[in-house]
Amino acid sequence: MRRVGVLALQGDVGEHVATLASLGADVVKVRTVEQLDSVEALVLPGGESTTIAHLLGTSGLKDELGARLKDEMPVFGTCAGLILLSDEVVDGRADQWSYGALAVAVRRNGYGRQIASFETSLDVKGLGRVPGVFIRAPKIERWTDDVEVLASLDHGDGEHPVLVRHGHLWGASFHPELTGDSRLHGLFLDSI
Ligand code: GLN
């Protein structure tokens, strides 16, 4: 059984835990370095990227997670989690940091504010139609050639990737944990 963590500092932790558990994973809510050390893969949930970044610092997890990313631990960042993984945050808070692990530049709140939240149907490579919930979602504005685009969306300003994979790292602009469709989590688990 896969032992998978969900970073549980802030954000929609419970939904990721429930989805992964429904697929048979042994799920650990990660709040400490010991818990991080015990997992073979990690989900970074949506929430507030600046808050999660702050709590990574105060919990002592920041450097340890950075080291695990360098060691190529499989990590799936959704929404705020994608922001934390990315190379560059456009329109971030002045003091905002990110791990620079995933070769994408994301614009924070690139799909609009909370009131502009929307749900749509995405065409995911290898899976077909998957529902996508976008809540103050980051927009992937640039990415390198070796980043695999698994789904894109044209939300009125041309196609932008919304689901990407770069080796051991996965990133989604949207919230795959809020729809009852567990296939994306399944893909991630299969890749570990
Ligand atoms: N806009 C949020 C941020 O910058 C992310 C939103 C989300 O995770 N739903 O952290």
Report what the structure shows.
- This protein has 192 residues and is an alpha/beta fold.
- It has six helices and twelve strands.
- It has a single domain, classed as Rossmann fold (3-Layer(aba) Sandwich), CATH 3.40.50.
- The strands form three sheets. A seven-stranded mixed beta sheet has the order 2-1-3-4-12-11-10.
- The model has no long low-confidence stretch (mean pLDDT 97).
- The protein binds glutamine.
- Glutamine is lined by residues 46-49, 79-80, 83, 108-109, 135-136.
Helix and strand element order = EHEHEHHEHEEEEEEEEH
Overall geometric form: globular
What fraction of residues sit in β-strands? 25-35%
Mean pLDDT: 97
State Rg.
Answer: 15 Å
List keywords for this structure.
seven-stranded mixed β-sheet, 6 helices, three-stranded mixed β-sheet, Rossmann fold, 27% helix, 192 residues
In short:
By secondary structure, the chain is α/β, with parallel strands linked by helices. The protein contains six helices and twelve strands. The longest helix has 11 residues, at 49-59.
